[in-house]
Structure formats: structure tokens, C-alpha cells
């Protein structure tokens, strides 16, 4: 048997282009000792690939992608074969990071069983878990507070407002670059106000101040968010889209100048959303989010792009801001 995978053929000069990738047909991998053979079903396409493709990955959990390499991504697949004692069996759904290919031989310890937590396994590729951590573990959102989400239509932003509502937020403001997206943010995604960059300021949309910031963008938007924050506000740093989507640079650094004197005077805390492995928190999240989905209180905005050959174009579309929510390739 053979299978297809997407490989990097040249390092992008600026944002990734179609010619930087190739669809390659290879023999289906054989699982070695301690490995699980997985038939991939879906993988996520995300701007987080930008620094990996440019080789600027120092300190990141994923390695650089060099010409000839397949790309990594959050992936959902079905077990074909599994070693004894792994706790996995043929037909089980698992998540792993060997995406951008139809089949993958993955160490058993790198596969996470998914079970039947969500009716649609694609939900596991969404960023609701990250949004939940940003609002609860980092920002400690309290009922009645005002929340600002920068980059309000991305994978995190499209769920953050909805989750904030379920956690008791009184008012949720988001930013975007498109009037059409702004309309959908208010009509579909739980936002009270959507601020279109260049048309309105964050301070104007939040005259009474902000208690919690979920920042997916960085740069000028983070600076404006901090300026509009109330005393005791909490800022959760999730992403750096201003850097990752810029044609200049490599997407691996995101410098921004903040008024630290104001941070001290207002007692504002800033915290990055890192990895959380606490199974109790993960179980709480799955129970709550699954209940919100089943009850129709939260929707999962996402786009399914069919066929592995479509992955490079899907990445271009993500970088250009074409879609709302999570983007996945369906194999």
C-alpha cells in the first residue's frame, strides 16, 4: 500500500506559498516496536506552523520543519495496529501530532485515546481547551466582568466569547479585521461588540474598562488592551498573530512595548497560557464543554477542507484570514 503526505520542499521567504510544499506518495509506514499505526482522519491547519517552517523554534515544543520533512499538527486518527500492553486496539480514536499525512507510525506514548467524550471527533482539534484555560486558570474570570478577546474569529477567539458567557461574563468585546466577520461575531459567536481594526478603538468600545483580556494577537492590540484595562485586570497571552501573519520576520518573536508604570499602578497581571497536564482540569473541561455543546449553549465554528492535496492552500487561507474558527483537513 502507499499513502500521501505533504512535505516542505523549500523554506518560505515570508509567508508560506503553494510552491513551498509538495504532495508525495510514499509506502505506508510500518509500525516498529512500541509504535501504533494510525490512519489519520483529520488534522488541524494553524498559523502556529509559521515559526516551524522558518526554522525559528528555539524553546518551542515542536521541532523545525526542514525541506524534505512532513509537517506536524494536531491530528485525530483511527488505530490500525497497536502493540500489546499499550491499552490501544484497532478502531480506537486517538490524537497525536503526526499530521499532514494519511498514515503515521506514532510511539504509543504519543497517542492520546479520545473515547466518546464528544459526538464529533473534530471537536478535539478545536481550541476551546486553550480558551478555557485562558479564562479560568490564567485570568480567573468572575461573573459580571468585562472580557476583551483580540483576534475574535480565530480558533481560540471564536470560542472564547461563548465560553466567557457560560462562565458568567457580563460583556464581551472582540477585535477583528473585517466588517463581515464583525457582524458574525455579534450574531453567532457571543460578542456584544466587535471592533474592526482601523475603524474603532478598544477604548471607545470599552469606556468603563476591561477586567479580563484574552490576547491572541499581540502588538498594537495588546498595547491598546492594557491601556483600557481596569485596576486588577488579568491578561492571558495566547497567541502572537500580529507576528505570525506578518510577511516580515519569521513569526518566532513578537516584541511589544507596554507601559509598565501603568501595570504597576493598576495592579495588572499578565500571564502566558502554557501547557496544563492536570487530568482533573482536563476532565472538568470536557464535561463542561461537552454539556454546553449538547445543550446548544455553545457552537463549534470550524471549516473542513476535503483532501490532503488541499492542505497547502488551506494554510494560505488561514494566513490570509479567510476563515472563521478552526480549519481542519478531512482525509
Q: Name the shape in a single word.
A: globular
Total helix count?
Answer: 10
Largest sheet: 7 strands, mixed
Range of strand content: 25-35%
Radius of gyration: 20 Å
- Roughly how much helix do the residues carry, as a percent range? 25-40%
For the residues shown, what is the average pLDDT? 95
Distance between the termini: 16 Å
Order of helices and strands: EEEHEEEEHEHEHEHEHEHHEHEHE
Write down how many β-strands occur, each being a DSSP E stretch of 2 or more residues: 15
The class by helix and strand makeup works out as alpha/beta
Low-confidence stretches: none
Report what the structure shows.
- The chain is α/β, with parallel strands linked by helices and 331 residues long.
- The protein is 26% helix and 26% strand.
- It is built from 10 helices and 15 strands.
- Helix 2 packs across helix 3.
- The radius of gyration is 20 Å and the shape is globular.
- The two termini are 16 Å apart.
- The mean pLDDT is 95.
How are the SSEs ordered, and which strands pair?
Blueprint: E1 2-8, E2 21-27, E3 35-45, H1 49-54, E4 75-81, E5 93-96, E6 103-107, E7 112-113, H2 128-138, E8 146-149, H3 157-166, E9 171-176, H4 179-188, E10 193-196, H5 202-205, E11 210-215, H6 219-227, E12 229-237, H7 241-244, H8 260-266, E13 269-272, H9 279-294, E14 302-306, H10 311-319, E15 326-330
Amino acid at each position: 500500500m502507499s499513502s500521501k503526505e505533504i512535505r516542505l520542499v523549500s523554506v518560505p521567504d515570508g509567508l508560506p506559498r503553494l510552491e513551498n510544499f509538495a504532495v508525495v506518495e510514499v509506502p505506508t509506514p510500518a509500525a516498529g516496536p512500541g509504535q501504533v499505526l494510525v490512519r489519520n482522519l483529520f488534522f488541524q491547519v494553524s498559523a502556529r506552523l509559521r515559526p516551524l517552517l522558518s526554522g525559528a523554534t528555539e524553546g518551542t515544543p515542536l521541532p523545525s520543519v526542514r525541506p524534505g520533512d512532513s509537517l506536524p499538527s494536531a491530528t485525530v486518527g483511527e488505530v490500525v495496529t497497536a502493540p500489546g500492553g499499550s491499552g490501544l486496539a484497532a478502531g480506537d480514536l486517538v490524537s497525536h501530532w503526526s499530521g499532514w499525512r494519511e498514515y503515521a507510525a506514532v510511539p504509543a506514548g504519543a497517542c492520546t485515546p479520545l473515547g466518546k467524550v464528544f459526538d464529533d471527533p473534530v471537536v478535539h482539534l478545536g481550541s476551546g481547551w486553550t480558551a478555557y484555560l485562558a479564562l479560568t486558570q490564567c485570568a480567573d474570570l468572575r461573573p459580571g466582568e468585562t472580557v476583551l478577546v483580540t483576534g475574535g474569529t480565530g480558533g481560540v477567539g471564536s470560542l472564547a466569547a461563548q465560553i466567557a458567557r457560560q462562565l458568567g461574563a457580563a460583556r464581551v468585546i472582540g477585535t477583528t479585521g473585517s466588517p463581515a466577520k464583525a457582524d458574525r461575531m455579534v450574531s453567532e459567536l457571543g460578542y456584544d461588540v466587535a471592533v474592526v481594526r482601523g475603524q474603532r478603538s478598544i477604548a471607545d468600545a470599552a469606556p468603563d474598562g476591561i477586567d479580563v483580556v484574552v490576547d491572541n494577537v499581540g502588538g498594537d492590540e495588546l498595547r491598546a488592551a492594557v491601556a483600557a484595562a481596569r485596576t486588577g485586570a488579568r491578561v492571558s497571552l495566547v497567541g502572537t498573530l500580529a507576528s505570525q501573519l506578518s510577511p516580515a520576520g519569521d513569526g518566532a518573536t513578537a516584541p511589544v512595548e507596554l507601559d509598565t508604570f501603568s501595570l504597576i499602578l493598576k495592579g495588572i497581571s499578565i500571564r502566558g497560557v502554557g501547557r496544563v497536564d492536570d487530568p482533573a482540569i482536563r476532565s472538568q473541561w470536557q464535561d463542561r464543554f461537552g454539556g454546553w455543546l449538547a445543550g446548544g449553549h455553545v457552537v463549534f465554528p470550524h471549516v473542513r477542507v476535503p483532501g490532503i492535496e488541499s492542505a497547502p492552500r488551506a494554510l494560505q487561507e488561514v494566513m490570509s484570514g479567510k476563515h472563521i474558527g478552526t480549519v481542519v483537513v478531512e482525509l
